[in-house]
Amino acid sequence: MIALAARSGQLDLEMAEWLSSDEVPLDQKAALVNALSWDIDGKDNAQRYRGYLALKYGRDTLDLQLLSAGELMVLGYLSVMDNYREPERGIAYLTAAQGREPRSYTMAIVRGLILAQMQFGGDWCALWTSVAEVELDRSLVRDLRPQARHIIFDYMHLYRQYC
Q1: Which of 71, 78, 136, 148 has a CA positioned 20 to 30 A from the CA of residue 31?
Q2: pLDDT in tens, 142-157
Q3: What SS3 state is found at 104?
């Protein structure tokens, strides 16, 4: 499913169902969103997912209270990836998701990456601390594959020098 997302770059019904499945681990959901990637001109994957969720829950408008923590994380992450220049569009979803799964490393690191993205062009040290704080939090359940953690920190380590 992740390979399909990387090839197409566009969310389809099968992917949306997979992203909403309780059987799919959070780190795999984050990997699919990451594989969909971003485009400088923007995308509409978050809108597609909102549409899917509205159908799933039988509502014309999306009621965030009905969404699982995973669905909130996906919606937030897709919102950021769709409009890379406005990461604040997804932070409320990610904060709500982390509130529902406060011990999930995956939830925390995705939110940390978005908080870091919000600092581009500003406090360069905050880019590093947004993810370093997650890494140092031993209360979190390490539900992200080690390879993914290494990729994140290989990149984010560039910003440590500004602290």
Answers
A1: 136
A2: 999 999 999 999 999 9
A3: strand
